[in-house]
Amino acid sequence: MTTSPLHIAVVGGGIGGLAAALAVARSGHRVTVVERAARFGEIGAGLQLAPNASLALEELGVLDAVRRSAVAPPQLVMMDALTGEQVAALDLRSDGYRSRFKHPYLVTHRTDLHGALLGACREHPSISLRTGHTVTDAARTAAEVRLHFAETPERLAADAVVAADGLHSRLRQILVNDGSPVCSKYVAYRGALPVSSMTGAMAQHATTESVIVWAGPRMHLVQYPVRRGELYNQVAVFESDHYTPDGDDWGSEAELEERFAGTCGTVRDALPLIARDRRWPLFDRPPLTEWVHGRIVLLGDAAHPMLQYLAQGACQALEDAVALGQALGEHSSPEDAFAAYASRRTERAASIQTNARRFGEICHLDGMGAVMRNQLLSGRGTEDFDDVAWVWTPVGDLQPTITS
Ligand code: FAD
Questions:
Q1: Any residues with Cβ below 6 Å from ligand 1, and which?
Q2: What's the 166 CA to ligand 1 centre distance in angstroms?
Q3: How many C-alpha atoms does 38 have within 13 Å on its Cβ side?
Q4: Which CATH architecture has domain 7-180+285-396?
Q5: For residue range 219-244, what is the model confidence (pLDDT) as tens digits?
Q6: In what residue span(s) does the FAD-binding domain sit (predicted)?
């Protein structure tokens, strides 16, 4: 890029916002991140990072930092939550995996990934970070955007803005005004506990390095270790029979117990160790093609909130960030760069959003549907990545180039 650097404001300091800040700064621009929370941080649960995310992290210069605490699981295993039998497995350390994807499949604590991104942002001389700044409005002219905040009458003027303010994005509401996110009626309970605090069968089970998905009727449990294997992450998900659009008393702990009552012993052993302090209703939205609004562009969950069944929300935010950095490196005007970024990203993000819903339906089948799913999947080899390759392989300029 030959023209003078832009000043770009990034709204939201989650995984998407910090990754975007890094990518934009690395493409030669000055960045201010504004985050509404009093401190930067993430909640205490795990995150799967497929090879498309590892590639993006490498492009952002933080893969080594993430790998220091992440676990590279040997397998991705689907189990039947009722019978306790294995349905299918993918070998993530096989030659087939390595030759196809080139980058590792990792599982990490969210705090560790967020911390690696935050550390890199703090070290970058062109990034400044502000907490306690809740964006309420964005006044746009042809040449700049002025952000308004809830806490202060001060305005922040920037040449352009990246809206990485998450599922309930204020900027998306202002720019797109497409209503509220869609609630799936499913809810998650999740958290990561020290393996050293576990006893009995669960202590033994928590030494398993693989990612295990226990699929059952309208429910599932995901388990994997994080932070060098010191913590064991568990996410229990189920559809509530008591959902109401305005209530917050559906998807209760009692319903969790009820829904998981018929599961096999290993799943029932896990339940008492799943955090109950907070429940997470699960939302998405239908795909959106208009990510660019003059000098403001959407990124991460603000652009493409998706159900977590393909474990891709954060992975896609990381892909967004790299694509945005590349576009800003190639185009001197923010409008052109944003248009190039959106044209690279909207179709792929949309298909992952749409297929995440479908994969959830497959995972939650009951009766004959579940029997047929198990029969179909059990015929697949451990190096048969054909069904997931399109998800784990970025398109266009983000194609893997480096062997690791
Ligand atoms: P967020 O993490 O929501 O960050 C938005 C930030 O913006 C926040 O810090 C917020 O405080 C700030 N903010 C909001 N409004 C304002 C405002 N007005 N002004 C200033 N700041 C603001 N993804 C994966 O890739 N792999 C997985 O295994 C995976 N598992 C998941 C499991 C569950 C149960 C769930 C619910 C999600 C999972 N995801 C997974 C999805 C992933 O967590 C999200 O897609 C990702 O965290 C989105 O990051 P983001 O930065 O876009 O949004």
A1: 11-17, 34-37, 47-48, 134-135, 164-167, 170, 188, 190, 235, 280, 282, 300-301, 308, 311-315, 317
A2: 5
A3: 0
A4: 3-Layer(bba) Sandwich (3.50)
A5: 999 999 999 999 999 999 999 999 99
A6: 8-354
